[in-house]
Design a protein that fits this description.
The protein is α/β, with parallel strands linked by helices and about 260 residues long. The chain has one domain (about 5-259): Acetylglutamate kinase-like (Carbamate kinase, 3-Layer(aba) Sandwich), CATH 3.40.1160.10. It is built from eight helices and 14 strands.
Amino acid sequence: MEIKNINVVKIGGNVIDDPTALATFVDIFSKLEGPKILVHGGGKEATRLSKGMGIETVMIEGRRVTDRATLDIVTMTYAGLINKRIVALLQAAGCNALGFSGADGNIIKATRRPANPIDFGFVGDIDPKDVNDTLIRLLLEAGITPVICAICHDGNGTLLNCNADSVASAIAIGASRIAPTVLTFCFEKAGVLSDVDDDNSVIPLITKENFNDLKENGTVAKGMIPKLTNALDSAAKGVKEVRICKAENLLNNTGTIIR
């Protein structure tokens, strides 16, 4: 298969945690033409399993602290249960998918985050240069859709829990070394909104210039700031276009474009 363009799509808990939403998304994603890669987070499944096993879930600033016991649970959940559930659904939809953690095929390495100022445990940060784009090219040329979870490895035998948005951005930057790449974050809203209470107030285009204005006037705040910073960084490092939209709008042109 000649690779002329690549789509990288990231889904999170709003899709993963809802069996109906996941089935609908898989049907839509399978119809996305051309070479494609799916990146997923973990949703609430790991928290439910932790509770059932009597292991406390600790969150700091919205991020999971990953001690050794939690690392075992998130690896089983993200790289096992959720990843294979998605792969099976894609196979049923006629999309030949292959599931990966970062360790599989050395597809993406990470570096353990320093303990200062906050010790998040076995949590990793990613450099896009460490994405194995040679393997990604081989898979896409063979007509295989990689399904990549947010469990990576450090190259020294240790698994690391990584931010799924960061994994998706790094994979998209790596894919852009193969062919022009579009990165889509599937979001619970229709895009980035100028009014959080109005789903029709989608901001159609965000650039580095108007992003600063949107931050200063408070239009974008809290969790949307790192997501957009990530998106702008991806665009600056070679990704053709980044898009934020609802999962069900993947095949149309709605949402917010970040360039």
